[in-house]
Automatic annotation (TrEMBL):
It comes from Patiria miniata (Bat star). It comes from the Eukaryota. GO terms for molecular function: oxidoreductase activity. This is TIR domain-containing protein. InterPro entries: ARM-like, ARM-type_fold, Toll_tir_struct_dom_sf. Pfam families: HEAT_2 (PF13646). Transmembrane segments: none annotated. Signal peptide: none annotated.
């Protein structure tokens, strides 16, 4: 990936003076700052780090909220700074903003003393993040990077809401050596352990939302929770310190990803198109899961956007191909077009008969044209044979109609 700048600022126009102050300071310390040479979304994605200026205006700004979501799913380090106290700002934070930035390490610039103390901290933090990015890029270029670990890095980032404690993790503490437990028992023990922390970290009304997310997305509505499923979700790395709260922290990070994806791909999002164009670099399981969920959304435009985005990821899993094939028969013609083109770009061989059916049978000419393009993009023997056969049949039918 080619970066356009070291730092991108998320801010409301009313905070422009403070943004200019920080920007000049960072530039004087040899860091480059995005200056508007591309679209905002592209500038954010192509920058190494993000500084968000938190204020009572930016927390109410939908564009700022969208950009924070985009920064999160693109795994860009986020550094919140503010000239106001957290006590003043906290009531103005939306749920998505609170979920993603409230527990990060904020830096306060309320007075000259804090500016003198905290600017060096901000500078060092950004430089540390840039050094890590540079090292990872070098490893990937040399072929030494762990693709799976890199793809999941944003989901494994530490959650500062809780402090590590000595002792057993959640499963060991509550269920011992059991290999499976009923969902209702698991839920009750989970809430017994973490309900107060969910209420403290978020709000009381989000307890049920987190529980539903756990049951629906993580456990797939299964009535029994197995230790294997639990371990797979936690994804503990043997070379990393064991976090006793690993399951809860993993769930919180998963929730952040879901909220961020909803924010980025909402039809009113100000960064949606930039996200779609760059989504190929965000190949995480949470991105994939969220897009599959959005591809079944009630809103046809959202389904179409999700279909395009799934194609952009280039992930050719069975789940993706089956969902995209299903979208070929969607009631909305834009969704069918999007599914055709995405299947073509992904070169899904198993989709050829279904695309051929669309090419021959769809009543909308634009959809038929998209299906033909998809077959040409797949360009396999099967696809070429289907194209040739259909063209021959079309020619023969025209000849018969003339006679």
């Amino acid at each position: 990936m080619v970066y356009c700048s070291d730092v991108y600022f998320i801010y409301n126009n009313e905070d422009e003076d403070f943004k200019d102050y920080l920007s000049k300071k960072l530039q004087s310390d040899k860091l480059s700052v995005w200056n508007g040479e591309t679209t905002h979304g592209q500038g954010l994605i192509d920058s190494k780090a993000v500084v968000i200026i938190m204020s009572t205006t930016s927390t109410k700004d939908q564009h700022c909220d969208d950009e924070v979501s985009l920064a999160y799913i693109s795994d860009t380090p986020i550094f919140p700074v503010t000239r106001q106290s957290f006590v003043d700002l906290e009531p103005t934070l939306s749920f998505s903003m609170k979920l993603m930035v409230a527990k990060l390490n904020w830096m306060f610039f309320e007075n000259d003393q804090q500016k003198a103390e905290n600017y060096p901290v901000l500078l060092t933090s950004i430089r540390t993040a840039l050094a890590i990015i540079t090292d990872e890029a070098a490893e990937n270029q040399e072929g030494q990077g762990d693709e799976e670990e890199t793809a999941q890095a944003w989901e494994d980032r530490p959650n500062t809401a809780m402090t590590l404690r000595e002792g057993k993790d959640f499963w060991e503490d509550k269920f011992g050596d059991a290999t499976e437990v009923p969902w209702l028992e698991f839920r009750d023990k989970f809430l017994e352990q973490y309900k107060s922390q969910i209420m403290d970290q978020f709000t009381e009304d989000k307890v049920q939302w987190m529980t539903n997310l756990l049951y629906g997305d993580v456990l797939l509505l299964r009535k029994v929770v197995t230790k294997h499923t639990y371990e797979m979700f936690c994804r503990h790395k043997p070379n990393k310190p064991r976090d006793p709260d690993r399951f809860y922290n993993r769930l919180v990070n998963y929730a952040k990803g879901c909220i961020a994806m909803r924010g980025v791909f909402n039809m009113e999002s100000t960064v949606r198109l930039d996200a779609i164009q760059k989504l190929g670099q965000f190949k995480t399981q949470a991105v994939l899961t969220s897009l599959l969920d959005l591809s079944a959304d009630k809103d046809a435009n959202t389904r179409a956007v999700a279909a395009i985005a799934l194609g952009k990821t280039g992930i050719k899993s069975r789940r993706v191909s089956q969902r995209m094939i299903k979208l070929l028969s969607d009631e909305d013609r834009l969704v069918r077009e999007a599914a055709c083109i995405s299947l073509g770009h992904m070169q899904i061989e198993s989709a050829v008969p279904h695309i051929v059916n669309v090419w021959r049978m769809d009543i909308i000419s634009h959809v038929r044209a998209a299906a033909e393009v998809a077959l040409s993009l797949i360009n396999s023997d099967r696809a070429r044979q289907a194209i040739q056969m259909t063209k021959v049949l079309s020619t023969e039918m025209k000849d018969l109609s003339v006679e």
